[in-house]
Amino acid sequence: MQVAKQSKWANSYLVFVFILMYAPIFYLIFYSFNAGDYMHDFSGFSLTHYAAMFSDLRLMGILVNTFIIALLSALLATLIGTFGALGIYNTRQKNLKVTLLSFNNVLMVSPDVIIGASFLILFTLIGIKLGFLTVLLSHIAFSVPIVVLMVLPRLEEMDRDLITAARDLGANSQQVLSRIILPYAWPGILAGFFMAITYSLDDFAVTFFVTGSDFSTLSVEIYSRARTGIDLSINALSALMFVISLVLVVVYYFISVRGIRSKNTGVMR
To answer: Where do the domains of the chain lie?
Structure first.
């Protein structure tokens, strides 16, 4: 009876937390369909603000820039992070392995404001003009640890005897990597890729510091427009970004489930 009561309170608390988190988002999305121009009076359903959003050529250009940054940074971060995870996996000394993991996790635990300010100081000192390149480099930097943390657990689950057996059968390092290690780690690699895209699309704090006057991303643009006044096209844009992020998270979930199923299938065999 006491366990059931505790479970009831736990479920109620969980529902409360989700309502607290998602109510403002759904409130914002709801008014993106308002025929009026304000968020305090819903005067009817309309797609006017979505039409205004897509007809804004500057905004569409920023949207393209945001997706280019997200895709490029995710691809490069996945490549770097995968080989970084392989390097940590192949490290035999425990202390060195822990040290490498600690360095990898620095960007994960550091405040975004500190990271953004550090990149700004670095790019200023070495004379790189703030813009596309600085945003891309910054997004790669904070995405690499995410990829490592997605790929490394998958590698740790792999039976090392598979690699030993492949080498005993005459496989070279390239063949072991391409035919055994990467196929086994593939679900983790894909998960890292999609999570890197999600983090890049949603990032504001770091991007705010390293973007230039002639380049912007959606998060920075939404912030800039929101400061000048309420425009429901911002609601429409925010709703679009929320849906895109949600789709990426769902894809990541199915990849994770598939990886767990393939692992269980391998164990059963």
So the answer is: 55-268
Q: Closest by alpha carbon to 183, among 161, 150, 154?
A: 154
Q: Supply the pLDDT for residue 229.
A: 66
pLDDT band for position 237 (50/70/90)?
Answer: confident
50 in Cβ contact with 160 (< 8 Å): no
Closest among 142, 252, 145, 104 to 188, alpha carbons compared: 252
Task: Return the CATH superfamily for domain 55-268.
Answer: MetI-like (1.10.3720.10)
Q: How far apart are CA 216 and CA 134, in angstroms?
A: 11
Q: Is 223 exposed, middle or buried (0-12, 13-18, 19+ CB in 10 A)?
A: middle
Question: What is the model's pTM?
Answer: 0.81
85 near 147, Cβ under 8 Å?
Answer: yes
